[in-house]
Amino acid sequence: MQITVYGDTLCAQVTATAMAQTGHQVNWCVVEPASRERLAQGRPLFREQGLDRLCADQLESGRLTTGFWDDAPSGIPDAVFLALLPGQEAVAEQLVKTLAGSTGCGVIVNQTVGPVGTAEQLRTILKSVDPRAVLVALPDLIQEGNAFQTFTRPDSILLGCEDGEGEGMVRELLRPFNRRKDVIQVMSLREAEFSKLAISGILATRISYMNDMASLSESLGVDIDVVRVAMGADPRIGESYLYPGCGFGGPGLSRNVLALVDALNERAAEPGLLEQVLQTNERQKEVLFRKFWQFHQGNVAGKKVALWGVAFKPGTHRVDNAPALKVIEALWAQGVEVSVHDPKALADLEHWAQGRGALTLCNDPYEAAEGADALMLITEWKPYWSPDWQRLKRVMREPLILDGRNIYEPAFVREQGLVYRGIGR
Amino acid sequence: MVPEQDVLTISTIWSQLVQRAEQEKSLHLAEFFASDKDRFGRFSLEDVGLLADFSKQRLTDESRDLLVKLADERQLRHWMDALFGGAEVNCTEGRAAKHWCLREPADKAPGVHEQLDAMEGMADRILKGHWRGVLGDAITDVVNVGVGGSDLGPLMAAFALQSCLPPEGLCRPRIHFASSMDGSQVSQILQELNPRTTLFLVSSKSFTTVDTLHNARTARQWLARGLGLDYDDGALLRCHFIGISANAERMAEWGITPDNQLLFWDWVGGRYSLWSAIGLPIALTVGMAGFREMLAGAHEMDEHCRTRPWETNIPVMLALVDVWNINFLDIRARAVLPYDGRLKHLPAYLEQLEMESNGKSVSRSGEPVEYDTCPVIWGEVGPNAQHAFFQLLHQGTQAIACEFLMTARRYTEAVHSEALGELESQHALSNANCLAQSRLLALGEKALDPALALPSYKRYHGNQPSTTLVLDELSPRVLGALLSMYEHKVFVQAVIWGINPFDQWGVEMGKVIATDMLEVLADPDSAADLDASSLALARHISSKQK
Known about the structure:
Chain A is of the alpha/beta class. Chain A has 17 helices and 14 strands. Chain A has helices spanning 10-21, 33-40, 51-61, 89-101, 118-129, 147-152, 167-174, 189-220, 224-232, 253-266, 272-285, 287-295, 323-333, 346-353, 365-369, 389-395, 410-415, and strands spanning 2-6, 25-30, 64-68, 79-82, 107-110, 135-137, 157-160, 184-187, 304-308, 337-341, 360-362, 374-377, 400-403, 419-421.
């Protein structure tokens, strides 16, 4: 089939790649000029493990072509995916109007995450031009860092589609990814959008809850990691999203929770719990800073801190809302020198830091730790899991290890002659 | 140079004023207005965002001219030169009174600006969330611990300016005030706050004020307990206490780290100190830029006061009108009535500024004065006072002067846009009430329909004089001008009366006796030479505590 995918998002890249890989002819159209430039050079927008390779393969094979969103369409696609960035509502509306005018487009699949009711609104615009046109909602459930896998081997697919309009077409498109068992759940447009936000809300709540438990563990003298395993063994709870740490970030999770808080506020319902969840998370982002501050009794001016990992999670180069940013700002404000290592995110970090403050960016993790008064592990990239402790001890001025993801064994680190502080242990 | 000491004697001008008052006594304010349509033009002044209307005062051109002559006779020009020249105008304490200097531009007062810059550094750190508690948390609550001038001024101004938005990107902390020595405020505040995120400002000119030091000690113990630290922990002091004082040594002795000390000077009286670092709570409300605007507004009023001829000089004319009311019309009380809830704490502030300054009965040369000085001053937010003591103003037996304050523009901030219509109509209603009350107080039932036949208990005598002050808006600049105006008014009155407005010996002795009374309360039987009443009270309390 002929498919057009619109958007500059990870979701757009994954959808376009997956569709092309399964034999469709896909045209991927971006909105931002910067994205167009990148794609024109044959470079995918997102560089996730495996994904950039697959994407490049599809571009090479010719099954995946790229363009700009307001280019004149070369033909009438059988299906259109909208996976736009937040704030591009006007683009979405204009696209829907144009598509409605060109008769014959089979189905428009809206993957863009916006306030509940966005898809309905787009459908109204669409139907006002062409009453027979079809729009469905397929909220983006992709997990960053593992994006291609979660799209092509999903545990569940939420499909908002009403009166059966377009269901057959979407099922056909998703058939290669829905083989083991049927994981498509059909519901109304609003229900699909709201389910997506509600999922984000509960994941965020679990994390903040665990962070609260971690603070308590510290004052009770117990190890939160033992407690976490015990909790996860209970089938009513399960193991995922129980890791305490130095806060969650990223463009998706926090934005979705914020959207939910907004929705609650607008309807005058009490957002008490979710607001608290976000507040706890913002506070948690500074937890390593506080540990560093306490260790030095507030005398931190002129000291140096090394950060390992600044991406908002392993596997991505993005730093949007990342806990590391808050830590860096807090350190700058106290006159602390900051040096950073990250396998992928240094370029994004450098861009963010422009005009804000000075950073030393290092290509080697031990170079970053050179002369540091503390090492903060913020993003648990695999290469950080088993460092050369003796080397760290040698190069650091003060061998203080602040483990923001509880990936080290406290007793072992201490045996090596370093000072260890984790989250809740 | 301070002018040669002089006692206010019954001069020709004074006698002429007495005669004038005698002649005009029978005139009703309604007649003033009936016979003089242009009163407002001649009896109102406007400058620095302030309009002062004293046309509802029982004043004629003749009495006004005589009052101006009295000011000259009392050498007001010399005294003003002495004040602004930094001469020793506070004779009993042997020092100058240079609060005006706190508002001067940087080139004229480099020392002042050095402290303002230090204050700005602290204010910015707090407002940006960079000031951290001992456990590394950003500060969310600031408690001002101080009393008298270290409380009333900052409290009044910070409250008044709360509706001004804090500067972009800054996060205003919640600000609390603890002053009373019995600990009622501090105990309440501490119950609600988190020690990890609370910063204390300990403000005391001498840093010996018992009330303040006891409250500060309670706060420090609360922090130490809550954070699991020693009372003397250095990090606790460094992260949770700022000291503001004229006495660096005492601050250091108490435990304030040198980096956390803000200084002001001996030549700033406590009740004139909100312009110094004592004003930190104000800066935390409107940002340091807003605080500097307030200083600029006050400086404009200083210049106005220093350079304008008496007839067009707002503080001088207000002072002379007060003198006229007190000394010649025998009006011994003044009500301060702001028709804007944001000025709720202004009456208490003025009670201190005026009554502590001019509540004196000994002249500069040490002679007892033979005339009235400061009247009793009290007040309340106008519309609320209407439901409280306005009955006495309208139908009581006391002659009372009133001071109405209102704001022309309000609710211009973007935050109000949603409820703007409703709030604007509330503002209009309040202003309408203000105008109605001053009119009724002045004219009495002549303001009403003459056809009304009223029984005696429903009648309004009127003839109660008032001044109305209209602020263009309640901005830092206009508030600064207003407060500077009051300070200078108080000084001008003191010059007319020949008293020193800058000391407060009347509040010293009580502190000394209180120390003795502590012992009496601990053991009433140990007391010797105590009056029967005090002794019996001490015994009664002690018996109830057993």
